[in-house]
Amino acid sequence: MPHNTDRIQTTHVGSLPRTPELLEANNRFQAGEIDLPQLGEALDEGVKEIVRTQREIGIDIVNDGEYGHTTSGAVDYGAWWNYSFHRLGGLTPTDEDRWNDAEKHRSSPGHIVLTSFPDRRDRERFRDAYEDPTAGVLAHRNTVSQPKITGPLTYTGQEAVAGDIRRVKDAMALNGATQGFVAALSPGSCARVKNEYYATDEELVYACADVMREEYKAIVDEGLTVQIDDPSIAESWDQINPEPTVEDYLDFTRLRVEALNYALRDLPQEQIRFHLCWGSWHGPHTTDLELKYLVDLMLTINAQGYSFEASSPRHGHEWKVWEEHKLPEGKVVYPGMVSHSTNGVEHPELVAQRIEQYASVVGRENVIASTDCGLGGRLHPQIALAKLGSLVEGARIASQRLF
After folding, report:
1. Predicted confidence (pLDDT) per residue in 303-346, tens digit
2. No. of H helices and E strands in the chain?
3. Residue 373 exposure: Cα atoms within 13 Å on the Cβ side
4. Are 207 and 259 in contact (CB under 8 A)?
């Protein structure tokens, strides 16, 4: 994960649009019509193509598009999390979809309880918009059932993650890419599955840390960077009803950070990047917790780089947070310069200006231009690739000014 030396480098958060062929293979795999090796045949070709596309656009730090993370369809806001259901033991399937099934859990002072999606505070505030199928807030996503934890968690994804690693490394070699990453679920986000086995929140989160560590280690042992996907650090704020105090929320979140650092112990920081976001559905996000409350806790995570939303309408102003919160020596940031939450393709000049804002507060060598969140499952493929092109062109313009 090198710092910039002569130009602004570019990357993205991970998920990229799947091809129709891969979407069909995913559907057949989830229906039990094909097994993992047969799905792998579709993945082999898909990853070669998406890495080639990234390199042709000019992306420096590439990945497999998260193609190995099973998706439910062209629109899927949860593949980053749902893929783990195929890689963990101790789960029992249910027919519950937490985006649609309301559980009216309420928090009490000092005691945090996560509610289901329909009972979240942003959804309560904009109930009509969220439930209007023509409004575009939740688009036309397929129903995805989440399992529950009924026994001790184990990691069963060795074959799957080995396939992710092999495919991206092979595709990098074919396309001249020297830097690559693979995304993996954080313990805190893993622990959001309904739990009927572990006695305490702490036991659950640390059990998730133990199993997900196997995936992190497999990735870094093969020379790739692991990106820890952890919307739970920021997004869970909206999932608590009624709104807690910031202090209580940070205590709740600190356990998840400590468990993540436990899972990352002894792994090389230069091969670890952390992704924070406030949830990738296209809602108003008026109940997002501001970055200024989260940044210091985020910086305690044992990663070299920190990825976060920086161009969305709710968080585009937060570059100024870094005027008061100094980036530690040797660290880098991956601010999102283009957003997953709008169909408008950002002008390269706007991208350049955003990069320059971050360079002014953390240093030009420490800014790697990225996306707010994954573009796959959120945007049409044509728009997603156009945004990556604008990102690269904006980085080129900024580089001319900064170096």
Report:
1. 999 999 999 999 999 999 999 999 999 999 999 999 999 999 99
2. 13, 10
3. 25
4. no
| Residues 312, 372 contacting (CB under 8 angstroms) | yes
- Tally Cβ neighbours within 10 Å of residue 245: 10
Report pLDDT digits (tens) over 110-122. Answer: 677 787 777 889 9
Q: Which of 198, 265, 232 is nearest to 84 (CA)?
A: 232
pTM assigned to the model: 0.95
Using CA atoms, how far residue 354 sits from 299, 327, 332, 337, 371, in Å, is 21, 17, 16, 6, 12
Query: Distances in Å between the alpha carbon of 77 and those of 27, 55, 143, 231, 252?
Result: 16, 25, 11, 12, 24
Torsion of CA 396, 397, 402, 403, to 10 degrees: 50
The answer to whether 191 and 252 are in contact (CB under 8 A) is: no
Contacts of the segment 362-365: beta carbons below 8 A, 24+ positions apart: 362/322, 362/327, 362/333, 363/327, 364/4, 364/8, 364/402, 364/403, 365/3, 365/4, 365/5
Peptide bond before 242: cis, by omega within 30 degrees of 0? yes
Q: Which structural domains are found in the chain, ordered by start?
A: 20-402 (3.20.20.210)
How far, in Å, CA of 119 to CA of 238, rounded? Answer: 9
Q: How far is residue 269's CA from residue 170's CA, in Å, rounded to a whole number?
A: 24
Coil, strand or helix at 225: strand
> Which of these, 52, 326, 280, lies nearest to 177 by C-alpha position?
52
Q: Which of 41, 47, 79 is nearest to 184 (CA)?
A: 79
Q: Tens digit of pLDDT for each residue in 210-251?
A: 999 999 999 999 999 999 999 889 999 999 988 999 999 999
The secondary structure of residue 140, as a DSSP letter, is T
